[in-house]
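Hi support team,

I submitted a single chain yesterday and got back a structure, but I'm not sure I'm reading the token output correctly. Could someone confirm the output below corresponds to the sequence I sent? I've pasted both exactly as they appear in my results page.

Thanks,
R.
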Amino acid sequence: MKSIVIRGVIVFVSIAGEAMAACTGPNLNQTQLSTTLSGMTVCATRGAERWQEQHQGTGSGTLVDYKNGPSDPVDPSETVGTWSISGTGANAVVRYDYGSGGTYDYRVYGNGGNSYSFCNASSGEEIVGTVVSSPSCP
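Hi R., thanks for writing in. Yes, this is the structure output for that exact sequence:
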């Protein structure tokens, strides 16, 4: 019984450590951010919110919410702001400017594969997303 409890605590600590580690360690630098995001779509969810934002341009450019596609009569794609990279090395962030909706800076951390943690540089809030080459999310 004692060994089961110890193993359970070890498993819990290792899982909790992985969950908390997403916004720690080395974040992507300015070159890695440009390579990862330029021309790509970030797919993410938070509660009922769902994002599929195309990063047009190289290193900076227009940010487009793909929605149901540019020719959809009900919910077409729309430009929602701009994106750019600010800072270098460990200070590099991707900056999203939504105009009157605000400007947000995120440090980006690789989680393996095409999964990334976008960590708000001010609040520390983490949004996990996948980066895909297609304009729409799977």
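A quick pointer for reading it: Confidence is low (pLDDT under 50) at residues 1-20. Let us know if anything else looks off.

Best,
Support desk
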